[in-house]
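Because discrete structure vocabularies remain unfamiliar, we turn briefly to a single example record, giving the amino acid sequence and backbone structure tokens:
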Amino acid sequence: MANFKRFNRSRLTSSPKEATTSRIMRSNKSKNTKLELLFRKALWKNDIKGYRLHWKKAPGSPDIAFPKRKLAIFINGCFWHRCPRCNLSLPKSNTAFWKDKFHRNQERDKRNIQLLNDMKWNVIVVWECMIKSNIEDSVASVREALS
């Protein structure tokens, strides 16, 4: 029988102090979010099909990828990726942690976009606020990039 090592949670990450915070953080998903599902439904409604989801062969695993057309689409939440339009404030508690976390997210996004651009891919970043305000404009930008 294999000997499995037990992981000590306190060594991996710091645990939230409140149970509510812990529950909320656990509920955040990275794939198939409501925004992604809404956007994909709009793509199908506009007869835009043939894409790959979370394609691991492209840097950053774009949320939606058209590999043959070299088009990558990232659907970013305004809070986690710090939307330039929304200008959201930092959380009031543990601000040093959040500032560092958001900075790492933004740097990772820039690096992945740069790698895709170096590979001659077109990259579209669709923000949460764009989907909520006018999803048709975002779909039109995808249609334009594919033609």
About this structure: Confidence is low (pLDDT under 50) at residues 1-12. Strands lie at 52-53, 64-66, 71-76, 122-127. Residues 44 and 50 are 10 Å apart (CA to CA). DSSP finds six helices and four strands in the chain.
